[in-house]
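Quick one: structure for this chain?
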Amino acid sequence: MVLLLFGAMLTSGQWLSLNPMTTIPIIVVTMISMVGISFMIAGLAIIVKQIQAFLQIFQFVLMGLVFVPLTVAPLLAFAPFVKGVNMVRTVMIEDLTLTQLPLSDYGVLLLNSLIYLILGLTVFHACEKIAMKKGLLGQY
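Got it. Here's what it folds into:
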């Protein structure tokens, strides 16, 4: 991935700031919401079983969410991990540090991640109960 990134920067002439001390903490907090989404999908998978087609469509939806900047659609800040991706994009393009980002951005990112994690765990638990009632977990 790093080689592809440097290749893209070389061919485009646009150089990004790759400060791991700034980007990694934002990415780690963003990953919390991704774990929540993963629990939701896992819950759905134990009930439905054949979920491959849904995952392929969902992958394109997620790519669309990631590519739209929040300046174009500010309400996407409430979607999972869009705020974190936007913060990383801003940090890399504008060569910012963690202290140069507004505290409100961190608050929205942390709240978003925690909400999606709690929602994911709740959905998974509910799906697990449904699967147990229907006897779908016998093979596990």
